DNA sequence: CGTGCTTTTGAATAGTATCAAGGCCGGTGG
DNA sequence: CCACCGGCCTTGATACTATTCAAAAGCACG
């Protein structure tokens, strides 16, 4: 039930009470394990997904199967939405952690948009923010060298991670997964992480990366004037 | 007057008739020459811009003044929008051709959104499409080599160009401007264009680039499964 | 006709991707 | 329990690509 949902950041909360109930009765909320596809590139568009809990990567591949992560999403984010009006998703989505994700079909969503202006406006603002973030990312990936890109990637992962409880952030993604976020390969990521560890900008515990000073990492990217308000 | 506007693709047309008139009475439509700033990075957000005619680049710079073009826009597109809720624009916009661009202040826009669901939905869809395009671009710029990026850039410029009347598209941007769109430098662009001319994939007339076979150019990028429906 | 800007091309350099080998760790099966 | 296997990580050597530097030519402009 949406009305009892723990996730305050869910966009559906911008609907009227009776619409929240209506959506609640139509949606379903499967439980996804880690590394599970939510939808595939090329599959049919049936509706939109709202992340209740967990971290998700949005991916796009070339014909050789090489995969690029184009966006990360966490609780409160919407997925699949970018495909409205098209027949098929041009991108795919995969869970990075164990997740709960609500699915709402196109028809219900369309009616909700027409009758809940506040909801529609907030969804619009969500896209607007994501577009701005995507554009800043375009700039960074175009102008940065490998070391800077890795730092950018780590900060991005940290910001879209859910466990920001303590003063240290742990990253459980593989070197390969990080490489796909910033557009390089696992060897380069490994090299840069080794250097950053020597410079005491991060620690590693086995394969886990531990960020203990986000501000110091951000400072290394300050030349790019990144607006950091995700 | 919006009601008499020649631009059928303008998003404002999704409002009710009286709202179109209301917006019409509040907006202004300055005439911009080529290479004119519409708004600067860091300036205050007063409203949104609707392109009536012309081509515009959205740019973002680093602290050294190096400039990256993160998006191209043409008639029917919205600008400045991505800054709602923020105090300042994190990006800037510059005309690439002589243009007419309508400005609507934040307050009027906000009221229009609340009372014109169809308008809001279409603006949302516009963002949604732009986000998808930006993400595909992220993938391409991450995976392509320089030659492919230049071809991608030329196709992007052609698609956001207004004079698609004949079977050949002319591009008047400098090598430097093209380089900033794809994240390289003018020398590389020059080299690639020389090679493409030898391969008969394009022609040049003085500094102008002439594309006479868009399909052949697109075919060279087919490995990337680009959804080409801008 | 000179000046300044863009384009083009070559050469040197720097940076990144690729290839290869070894180490570490967890899981599996004898 | 231990040996083996496969996956991921790390590091070095090498090849390749892209950037930078430099110079000359072309064009626009006063």
From TrEMBL, chains A, B:
InterPro entries, per database record: cNMP-bd_dom (IPR000595), cNMP-bd_dom_sf (IPR018490), Env_Response_Regulators (IPR050397), HTH_CRP (IPR012318), RmlC-like_jellyroll (IPR014710), WH_DNA-bd_sf (IPR036390)
SUPFAM superfamilies per UniProt: cAMP-binding domain-like, Winged helix' DNA-binding domain
PROSITE patterns to which the protein is assigned, alphabetical: CNMP_BINDING_3 (PS50042), HTH_CRP_2 (PS51063)
The keyword Mitochondrion is annotated on this UniProt entry: no
Record domain HTH crp-type: where: 144-215
Keywords: DNA-binding, Transcription, Transcription regulation
Recorded GO CC terms: cytosol
Gene Ontology terms, MF aspect: DNA binding; DNA-binding transcription factor activity
Domain Cyclic nucleotide-binding: 11-84
Domain of life of the organism encoding this protein: Bacteria
Protein name: CRP-like cAMP-binding protein
């Amino acid at each position: 039930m949406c009305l009892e949902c723990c996730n305050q950041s869910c966009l559906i909360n911008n609907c009227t009470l009776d619409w929240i109930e209506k959506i609640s009765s139509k949606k379903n909320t499967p439980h996804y394990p880690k590394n599970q596809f939510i939808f595939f590139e090329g599959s049919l568009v049936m509706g939109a997904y709202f992340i209740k809990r967990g971290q998700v990567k949005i991916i796009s591949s070339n014909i050789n199967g090489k995969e690029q992560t184009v966006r990360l999403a966490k609780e409160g984010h919407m997925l699949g939405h970018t495909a409205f009006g098209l027949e098929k998703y041009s991108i795919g989505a995969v869970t990075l952690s164990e997740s709960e994700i609500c699915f709402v079909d196109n028809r219900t969503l369309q009616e909700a948009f027409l009758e809940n202006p506040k909801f529609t406006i907030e969804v619009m603002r969500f896209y607007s923010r994501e577009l701005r973030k995507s554009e800043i990312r375009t700039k960074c990936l175009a102008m940065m060298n490998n070391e800077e890109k890795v730092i950018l990637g780590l900060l991005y992962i940290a910001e879209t991670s859910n466990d920001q409880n303590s003063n240290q952030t742990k990253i459980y993604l593989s070197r390969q997964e990080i490489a796909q976020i910033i557009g390089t390969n696992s060897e380069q990521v490994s090299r840069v992480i080794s250097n950053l560890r020597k410079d005491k900008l991060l620690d590693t515990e086995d394969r886990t990366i531990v960020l203990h000073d986000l501000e110091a990492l951000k400072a290394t990217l300050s030349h790019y004037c990144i607006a950091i308000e995700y």
